[in-house]
Amino acid sequence: MNRRAFLVSAGAAALAGCTGGGTAGDSTSTTTPSTATTTTTTSPPTTTTTAYPDPVTSTLSGTGQTVTESFTPELAGPTVFAFAYQGSSNFAVWLLDDSGSRQDLLANVIGAYSGVRMTGAAGTHYLEVDTTGPWSVEIRSLPVYETGQSLPVHGGRDYASFVGPVQFPGSARATFSASSQGNNVAWLRDAFGQKADLLFNTIGPQNEISTTVQGSGVGYVGVQSNGTWSLDLESM
What we know:
With about 240 residues, the chain is mainly β. It has strands at about 35-40, 55-65, 65, 80-85, 90-95, 100-110, 115-120, 125-130, 135-140, 150, 155-160, 160-180, 185-190, 195-205, 205-225, 230-235.
């Protein structure tokens, strides 16, 4: 199927391919609230291409159920959440806006978990964490990249993840495979991390299904799945 043009490019020029994840579970738990701690680090400029060039990072950590202190991304690009949880119960994390309203379910898994999610979150936010064990999350505020990785680009891993920044040339083909028996979703995101178009939304294993992306500029593809998946982006 064909997709509409959507992408925007502006900002800094560093680039790299990034991946991360988040998965879905269906049980919840109630625990005693805990206090989260925060550490903030500003990464110095570098000429070396890394997975997250020139981010501003902060870390929240705690044990059990809590609503964290507020945080505000310092840069205008995507906001990336890298989670680590070592418990055996449900681990659920909601992104809240400055009024406390739920905006996005970033994680909802059972058992130990390490994954990354991308959003277009801007302004003041909180995290609502519901679990019984120790957890931490590194929040990475990225710049808006002017250029991205040239096609072809390959990405893949277990569970939810994202690939990018990618430089889309105007017309590209996305080919997707997944092993999950559950839902597999892939969203196109713009240079700011905002959802731009739904590329795939399937249930059950998939083998090299394809769609066409029409648009030029920098973007990302975020995948939500509870199994192994792969994504290939190629020029047409």
